Structure formats: structure tokens, C-alpha cells
Amino acid sequence: xxxxxxxxxxxxxxxxxxxxxxxxxxxxxxxxxxxxxxxxxxxxxxxxxxxxxxxxxxxxxxxxxxxxxxxxxxxxxxxxxxxxxxxxxxxxxxxxxxxxxxxxxxxxxxxxxxxxxxxxxxxxxxxxxxxxxxxxxxxxxxxxxxxxxxxxxxxxxxxxxxxxxxxxxxxxxxxxxxxxxxxxxxxxxxxxxxxxxxxxxxxxxxxxxxxxxxxxxxxxxxxxxxxxxxxxxxxxxxxxxxxxxxxxxxxxxxxxxxxxxxxxxxxxxxxxxxxxxxxxxxxxxxxxxxxxxxxxxxxxxxxxxxxxxxxxxxxxxxxxxxxxxxxxxxxxxxxxxxxxxxxxxxxxxxxxxxxxxxxxxxxxxxxxxxxxxxxxxxxxxxxxxxxxxxxxxxxxxxxxxxxxxxxxxxxxxxxxxxxxxxxxxxxxxxxxxxxxxxxxxxxxxxxx
Length: 448
Fold this sequence. Notes:
Layout: H1 2-31, H2 37-54, H3 63-76, E1 83-85, H4 87-97, E2 101-103, E3 106-111, E4 114-120, H5 125-128, E5 136-140, E6 143-144, H6 150-157, E7 164-171, E8 176-183, E9 185-187, E10 192-193, E11 208-213, H7 220-233, E12 238-242, H8 251-259, E13 267-273, E14 280-283, E15 295-299, H9 306-319, E16 325-329, E17 337-343, E18 349-358, E19 374-375, H10 380-388, H11 399-406, H12 411-430, H13 435-440
Parallel strand pairs: 11-12, 12-15, 15-16, 16-19
Antiparallel strand pairs: 1-18, 2-9, 3-4, 5-6, 5-7, 7-8, 10-11, 13-14, 13-18, 17-18
Helix pairs in contact: 8-9
């Protein structure tokens, strides 16, 4: 009897073992070893060693150079924002977060695999040379950017103040190609400006203030609050908050900017990634001083990253009846991913996309952008005039060009003022009332 029981147990164990083994084999066969870390690391080291031993100039290569090159290639295939940084590149990144660096003043990215200007930074060599958002950079110092990659392109544009760089640009709107020689300088600009490109902040008609954020750097929240107080002392009743051509910046600054306009414990943005530590929710810590201020936020196709976080947050909280904000302009850029910096030994590091941003209503920003409540389109000529006029850019242009640009109307700003005036009239008629109803009473979405 005991032999029969033992025999049965052995047969069952053997069957389970065969079944489990077959399952493992089938799984392995299906993946073809693609996720086998040891097998693939063996492949990598075999190729590494063979290159080192048999490449024609292998004696001039070091293992570090080969590994660094492999890391660059690996990270660059993930997305345009992940990259390996050598010591020089990592040092440049650290300088960026401090708010100043040596360069020409261009925020660039990849669009359709082409190096494209997201926005020229104001008061910089690139801005004064007339480079515009959307311009495509074909060459840098005679080298094609086609296969250069974003990290290498940025590295070549940067350099010591006083040195020069020659770029070839294509303007898609006109098909014009031109060469521009730029002298690098220390790039450091004010984050907050008024309608005239200054920091005086005069109040407009009907008690409507105007502020423009050029970027989200370390001093942004302080500069913004100071400007708002100046307008508040003059009797501000509503605000046009201009985020057009703002390429973004620091996440914590986007959070601090939102806190000025929201009530306590309001969700601003959330991040979601593969690891638990990349799951974050950012909420307001206290009631914002300007939580009841009616606003129109202006955005366009070059409003990116932190700009989209702010616009998406204020749009969602308005839809929920928490605040009173209208988003007006054109679809934003769609850069809504989180990059984390991982320092390594020998002063190098790598940047990796670890999460994506989501608005309070859980809309994804990455590759989608923010759709305005009111769509007002601008022509290429109008956008060119907008970037020059009132920003110190027309001084270097011929008189006839200045005159032509000065005659162009800023339709988005005009519409924003009309919306705020209508909102003010509605509030006066209906009293405090329901803020969500006030939002619904604004003009229908339309295109100009």
C-alpha cells in the first residue's frame, strides 16, 4: 500500500516537473531569449571584445569609449529626451538649472526627426538674429544635423561666451534657407515680463492686467508674485496670463505658479511611471492669493512642458468649478514626460524618461498637448510680429519691416480681453454665483 502511494507521488511529481519544464521551455522559446539578461549581456561583451580586438583602429579605442558609445546609442533609441551625458554635458545641465549658461539662446527639439527651434530665448543672440519658433536647423558649423541627434546638436550650439557658431536655417512657412552667424553669450533672462517686454507691469483698460512668462526657472515664482502684487495695487480685476512660446522648465516652478491661483489641497498634476517612486501627486499646500481672479491663459504650439502643466491644471480645475480660467489660443506642443537624472562615477550621468504627466482629470499631456477652450489661430506673419513686437526684437529690422509688423493685430490677445470683459459683465449681472456657469457663458469656441 505504501509502495503504491509512493509510486503515485513520484509519478505526479514527475508529471508536474515535465509540465513545468515544458512551460518554461515554451515561454523561453516564445521570447527567443529576448528578456534573458545573462544571454544578452554575453552577446554585448562578445561584440565589445571583438570590436576592441579586430577593428582596424582598435588599438586607439578604450573600453570606456566603447561603453560610452553603446550607452549613447541605447538611450537615444528610447525617446528624444533620454540621453547619456559625458562630464561636459552633465556640467552644462547643472548650469542650466541655475538659470544661466553660455550659448546662443535656442530651445530646440526634434519634430519629424528634424532639429527644430521650439523657441528662441528672449534677449539672446538667437532672438536678436530673428530666429523663430518652427525654424529647422539644417547644419551647425557646416555639419548636417540629420543624424547628429539632439544631445550632440545642443552641445555644438553651446560654448564659451564670445565664441561663434554658424547655423543654416530653413523656415518652412516660406521655404527660405539662410545662414546665420551667432556669437555665444551668457544666457540669462527675466522670467516675467509685461506687454512691452519690460518689468513695469502697467494695468490695462477695464482693470485687466497682463503678464507673460518666458520660462520656468528658479526665480519664476518670486518674479511672478511680485508682478501680480504690482498689478493688484493698481486695482487689477482680471488677468491675461501669456504662456505662448514658453518652452517650460522646472516642475517645481510649475507647481508653485499654479499654487498662486488655486484653493488649498487642490490637485495640480500627477506623474505615473513603472516604479512606485514615480507615482506622485502634487497638491496645493495653501489657498492661493489669487484663487478668485478671472483669467485667460494664452497658449500656442510652442507652449510646452511646464507651460502645459499649468494650462492643463487651470483648465481642469475650472471645469470642476474650482477656479475661473479660460484657455485660449492653439493646441500646445505635447511635451509631458518626466526625466530623472542618474549620476554615475567619473562625473558622467544619464537622463531617463521615467514617467508621464497627467492633468487633474487624468488627461495625458505627452504627445497630445492641451486643447484650448477657445481656439484662435494665428498666421505665420502674425506669429512673427508677435515674437518681435514689444520684445525688443524690431530694433534691428529695416524700417519698412518694422512698420509692417507693427500693423499686425494680436488676435489672441484681443479675444482674451473681450472674454474677460464679457466675464466681468456677467459677474456684475448675476452676482458671485456659480463659477462654472460663468465659464459656460463665455463665447463659443471659434477660429480666426
